[in-house]
Design brief:
The protein has about 400 residues and is mostly beta strands. About 10% of the residues lie in helices and about 40% in strands. The radius of gyration is 31 Å and the shape is elongated.
Length: about 400
């Protein structure tokens, strides 16, 4: 994003002179070297022009010059802050935002420059405080231009939650993301056991840009996961705008639970740590059309309890309008596992629902009480209308590992 050129103003230099804003400020050295230079000048031949030439210009020899690449009241955001010292070596540099605290950075090996590790955020005022190795110090300020458009995101799973072994980290953006590589670089994911995984970009069911991180295989129980989305100051592109804050979430992986659904056999079974702990007859979606169920791996997105299900919300006209108990959402397109006592005549012998996995009140209650968000439902069988798409809920597990890695913007 371009910004207006800052107005030229005059700023007092340490000597009492003025310099235009944007030119180097003068850093007064007050350490021993400077005092010695002052003493030598005073003991020369009366301060003539010749003596000034020998000491590098008299008073000017006791100065060193610094510059900051960002300046004024409308500096362009999205760039690292760079502080340069013309003479001598930097000792410390502190760059602090008016909101958000210090901006970390490193001094170069030769001691002449300092560059921040992160970029300057939009609409933020910064204070730069510098000390050099000779005891000199200086202070400067600048403010970045406001963002013309702000992008935001939503994160799953929620903070400090415990989730199932198939739960991805999922980030959905409010506005389009053109600069995918810049955004992905800012997403720092760490695990307690160095789990191997990859980010993959996809289109969410809502039509929005989305990026998910999934492991190569299901998570190991007990894994602790942290996402630090250091996005403040990242430009997502002309149609998306800037991020103006950071985000974070932490979660833990729970027991190894898998729900195995056999559409052809009309049964559903819950396995925990490799052992079957629940087996229930059920009825899936009616085959041969839009009312069929999806196959593949779906991930439990939410446990919604008793909800009103209306067929028109999923494009099935006025087929049904029911209050449904023990509702467990599996896709955005409307496939649930839930209690369906009205369909009891088909449990265990035929698929005759409108797409969901229906079972008795007792079995739905038992399943609802044991599963958690993030548990995989591995659905097999010929009586299906296709495979769960990657953006229809959490369908990334239906993509091969190699193909999923190829979806990273940093491949």
């Amino acid at each position: 994003m371009s910004s207006a050129r800052p107005r030229t103003r005059r700023t007092a230099a340490p000597s009492g002179r003025t310099v235009p804003a944007g030119r180097s400020a003068r850093l007064a050295l007050i350490g021993p070297a400077a005092l010695l230079a002052a003493a030598l000048t005073a003991c020369s031949d009366g301060g003539t022009a010749d003596s000034a030439a020998r000491t590098g210009g008299g008073d000017e020899a006791r100065r060193t010059s610094i510059s900051v690449n960002l300046e004024g009241t409308a500096a362009a955001p999205g760039e690292p802050v760079k502080v340069t010292l013309e003479h001598g070596k930097l000792k410390t540099v502190a760059v602090t935002a008016n909101e958000g605290g210090p901006l970390a950075g490193k001094i170069s090996g030769d001691g002449t420059t300092w560059i921040s590790g992160r970029v300057a955020a939009p609409g933020t005022s910064y204070t730069v405080e510098v000390k050099d190795t000779d005891g000199g110090s200086d202070r400067a300020t600048f403010t970045t231009a406001e963002a013309e458009k702000v992008n935001k995101l939503s994160l799953a799973p929620g903070k400090d939650t415990t989730v199932g072994i198939a739960q991805p980290v999922s980030v959905v953006f409010d506005h389009p993301v053109k600069n995918k590589a810049a955004v992905e670089k800012a997403l720092k994911l760490s695990t307690s056991n160095d789990t191997r995984g990859s980010w993959g970009w996809l289109r969410d069911y809502s039509g929005k840009d989305r990026v998910d991180w999934r492991p190569e295989e299901y998570w190991k129980p007990g894994t602790k996961v942290t996402l630090d989305a250091d996005l403040n100051g990242v430009d997502t592109g002309a149609d998306g705008g800037w991020f103006v804050r950071d985000y974070t979430t932490t979660f833990t992986i729970g027991d190894a639970q898998v729900v195995k659904v056999d559409l052809d056999g009309h049964r559903l079974a819950l396995h925990r740590d490799g052992k079957q702990v629940l087996d229930a007859p059920m009825s899936g979606g009616t085959p041969g059309g839009d009312k069929a169920s999806w196959r593949g791996t779906a991930v439990l997105m939410s446990k919604e309890g008793t909800i009103n299900m209306r067929s028109e919300t999923v494009g099935l006209g006025d087929a049904y309008d029911k209050m449904v108990d023990y509702s467990m959402r599996l896709t955005w397109s409307g496939m649930y596992a839930h209690a369906a006592p009205w369909n009891s005549g088909y449990f265990g012998n035929a698929n005759r629902s409108s797409g969901c996995l229906g079972m008795s009140d007792a079995n739905a209650s038992a399943l609802y009480g044991q599963v958690r968000v993030g548990d995989p439902f591995e659905i097999t069988g010929a009586d299906a209308k296709g495979t769960v798409a990657e953006g229809n809920g959490y369908g990334a597990w239906n993509v091969s590992w190699a193909d999923w890695q190829a979806k990273s913007a940093l491949k």
